[in-house]
């Protein structure tokens, strides 16, 4: 059985054309919105290079099991003390790439590195990766994924060949997620990951809380009980930030179209502030209940 990727066929063709030309670029920057399958595509391309496109082949099984000697994956690690992903990728996470690429390929072909979530690299890790990109060994391919290419070092971006992805079409979305309600599919904007993420809002509790805050309602004691409950849930805070951020962005866009530029600027600034609250809370493991209160205050 061959590994299947939904959508992104133009990006796959671009890669295959480069590969067949015999002049494959050593680094590919796969960018696009969260949840649209950037890492899935990276692994799909890695399988092509490592002879593992057939999932039932020896190479295919090793890639699936994470035991292929010529494939290294770098991503945010789990913090065992906190039971959640760390806020950033550090230089110690990136250091194994150097030794990996300077060893002979175990199967005599390509060596492939996948860095998933490039925007999570801290400054030292980004500089370490940049040095690797400047002098890559032969028969090396790096697939770097990011949801925020604008935050990356310009020098890092300039050393990569871009593969910019967009959301999946309705047919691919429905083929992947046949049981997700249509209302959620419309709000997912072609992102299967976002659709599954939004589906976690059981009974629409989080969406209702955001809507009331946006309407200027004063949140009573019962609402703050909900806030406390959301803070305890693994994705509660992220879900609220996502829904509120989308609403603020919609207001900014609507105000701009209406010619109300001061309001548009205000909404855009609030969306930026929300992003900072979310980033700092997740990176430094701050109190989620207090972070939710700060986020909801931006709605008024």
From TrEMBL:
<dbReference type="Pfam" id="PF13177">
    <property type="entry name" value="DNA_pol3_delta2"/>
</dbReference>
<dbReference type="InterPro" id="IPR027417">
    <property type="entry name" value="P-loop_NTPase"/>
</dbReference>
<dbReference type="InterPro" id="IPR050238">
    <property type="entry name" value="DNA_Rep/Repair_Clamp_Loader"/>
</dbReference>
<protein>
    <submittedName>
        <fullName>DNA polymerase III subunit delta</fullName>
    </submittedName>
</protein>
